Amino acid sequence: MLDKQGIAKRIAKEIKDGYYVNLGIGIPTLVANYIPDTMDVVLQSENGLLGMGPFPFEGEEDPDTINAGKQTITMLPGSAIFDSAMSFGMIRAKKVNLTILGAMEVSENGDIANWKIPGKMVKGMGGAMDLVASAENIIVAMQHVNKAGESKLLPQCTLPLTGVRCVKKIVTELGVFDVLPEGCFKLLERAPGVSVEEIKQATAGKLIIEGDVPEISLIY
């Protein structure tokens, strides 16, 4: 299985040269550490930063320089800082090429639930609803099953929705999946050491498997 760093490494391979990318809270923030130096990629943080770099080394943190998840980050040369209105103007105007989000559940139709668990206190949905409503390319980084071992790739989401029919691809500790327009998950790659049968058993939603499914490679 992949750990969180492995999921982030695999998602980094989806980023193309010249992309503007928004990284959500959780596993997506780790993606910044695995973008090759040879690529020209601009990371946007919804709290008002364009040009986010990797996490700082211990002892080099600046408490005033944080991402949307309140983690300390670095800024690359040429970075820009602005207010939230400008940040969400970029998002709503579809200036971001790729959005990478975490999720608690994803349905086989591409619906995503990632902002609220009923009965638990939350400060708000943050920028997730703007991102899923505006982004044309959304990749989800998530755990395949919950702590009880129950699938989080479902026929229908059971938690309050953040967006509908918006997720294009999912990377979990078990594999890489496309979300097809007809309403199903398609297994593209499996994690090293994980069998197709294990992935079938861990996936509650409709799953399409065609031919031999290759193992995930984390090498560019």
From TrEMBL:
Superkingdom: Bacteria
Gene3D superfamilies cross-referenced by the UniProt entry: Glutaconate Coenzyme A-transferase
InterPro entries linked: 3-oxoacid_CoA-transf_B (IPR012791), CoA_trans_fam_I (IPR004165), CoA_transf_AS (IPR004164), NagB/RpiA_transferase-like (IPR037171)
Keywords from the UniProt entry: Transferase
Alphabetized GO MF terms: CoA-transferase activity
UniProt xrefs under PANTHER family: KETOACID-COENZYME A TRANSFERASE, SUCCINYL-COA:3-KETOACID COENZYME A TRANSFERASE SUBUNIT B-RELATED
Family that this chain belongs to: Belongs to the 3-oxoacid CoA-transferase subunit B family.
Protein name: 3-oxoacid CoA-transferase subunit B
Organism: Mucilaginibacter oryzae
